[in-house]
Amino acid sequence: xxxxxxxxxxxxxxxxxxxxxxxxxxxxxxxxxxxxxxxxxxxxxxxxxxxxxxxxxxxxxxxxxxxxxxxxxxxxxxxxxxxxxxxxxxxxxxxxxxxxxxxxxxxxxxxxxxxxxxxxxxxxxxxxxxxxxxxxxxxxxxxxxxxxxxxxxxxxxxxxxxxxxxxxxxxxxxxxxxxxxxxxxxxxxxxxxxxxxxxxxxxxxxxxxxxxxxxxxxxxxxxxxxxxxxxxxxxxxxxxxxxxxxxxxxxxxxxxxxxxxxxxxxxxxxxxxxxxxxxxxxxxxxxxxxxxxxxxxxxxxxxxxxxxxxxxxxxxxxxxxxxxxxxxxxxxxxxxxxxxxxxxxxxxxxxxxxxxxxx
Length: 359
Hints:
Elements: E1 6-12, E2 15-21, E3 25-31, E4 37-42, E5 49-55, E6 59-65, E7 73-74, E8 85-87, E9 90-91, E10 96-102, E11 107-112, E12 116-119, E13 127-128, H1 130-133, H2 138-141, E14 151-157, E15 165-170, E16 173-177, E17 185-186, E18 207-213, E19 216-224, E20 227-231, E21 239-240, E22 251-256, E23 264-268, E24 284-287, E25 295-297, E26 315-318, E27 321-325, E28 331-334, E29 342-345, E30 351-358
Antiparallel strand pairs: 1-2, 1-30, 2-3, 4-5, 5-6, 6-7, 8-9, 10-11, 11-12, 12-13, 14-15, 15-16, 16-17, 18-19, 19-20, 20-21, 22-23, 23-24, 24-25, 26-27, 27-28, 28-29
């Protein structure tokens, strides 16, 4: 697909911003102006756009569009059953919609406080996946990291089997189901969790982003709180592939090529405590050999006095085009696999999510 066929959706703290490329990239439209857009999902199966809004007064809301934003429809909002508790004495309620993913017949929603919801009627209704919610690790080994409670930020669906999916919980770890959510297994062997006092735990880990190579669903990549990892056996074992001398290591976002199984990108930050770029320089790191080595891509990016970081959903790839947005409202684009970057807009607000979509 030619990059001229692309749209670029940026979900920000003040609305959804859509860019289009004809002869050049231009601002196409703005939706939900002034409202915090926590998640955007462009469904490749249906062409539908999903947008989650985090209203300060009205709570979490879901909308979808079947005509590239010309009109929007309010969908059902996931709701925790009245008798559910996050832990003893604390009722469960929807705090945040953090991830959306769909297959041919299903729509999954990942939320804070760690509930996974499923719709099988196009978003008209959602129900809580109880086997995950009642997983024995959740009460004592799931907890809030950057947010108040544990949250499901990654939902990765096997393109060859929609009953097979992985989720990433921060903090909780990676979980896998082969039966459409009827049962779940931990998939955290090989991961470090330096922030907890006990080691070798099956849960309590902090994946920041999980990606799957579509042609080989057993090939998974992960940007973690404690480094960069890859699994070649469907998450049964993870191998650390962080860069030498700890760079790249910590970060949130990750993108992988769907043409070359050995190519991936991360955007490093200093640490959880600081959350700024390493040496106040914005850099994208790319591997072309499955994580054996990493190259720094800096051309066109600010290299002095920069305090931008990239949140976990704010990096995306389509063919040779990559885009990322920052917490300070800067939106960057590369059309040559990250070799050269340019700023599309540096006057936005916090960018929570960046997604490419077909025009």
